[in-house]
Sequence to fold (238 residues):
Amino acid sequence: MIFGSGLLARAFGPQFANSATSCVYAAGVSNSNCSDQREFDREQDRLMVAMGQHRSAELFLYFGTCSANGLLASTSPYVQHKIKMEKIVEEHPRYLILRLPQTAGKTENPHTLLNYIFARIIRSERFQVWKNARRNIIDVDDVVRIAIGLALEEGVRRESINVANFLDSAMVDIVELMAKVVGKKAIYDCLDRGDAYPIDTRRIREVAPRCGVIFGPKYLEIVIRKYFGSAAHNNVIS
Fold:
């Protein structure tokens, strides 16, 4: 059973949509800049319904954010909301929470980091880049592979696990890689702002390679080319 219709829901659909024993909750607020309490309340209400309907599920899978372990945990309404939702999910007897960084995939959501950068570059629009900021990006297909390894092959339950790239990247490097792939110059102002929040990936260090996921120095470029490298992917934000 899948709750949701966005990037994660579509990615997990082939494996879990028709499952009678597993519930994947991939619905809710998709904009990390959201501060609308009504949106947060709507997700909480829906999550509570899903929890009640699938209390006997062998797996209740929820997606949190790696930012729950960083500075944003005390300043971001979105991150505080996600932490609150995790506490609710932990009441399920067979929960698994996967905390994700920036997730790459084919989506029309303009609020994702890569879609935002792509849109600015393809439109030749000037934007700001925080030169001290670093971000962690993982392919949604690799999230699925690691999730299957943890949840189905190893039977992991009652854990909150960071599922992230072993390497993060400077924002400037992400922007320049996107410009290289798109074939257009990025027009931006570099501000002396931003920071990094290291993500502890020790829990999946052995799981990822067993699932065929290799995080190497070329990983980010491969992911960007996969989703933005040609018109065939039709990922232009109008």
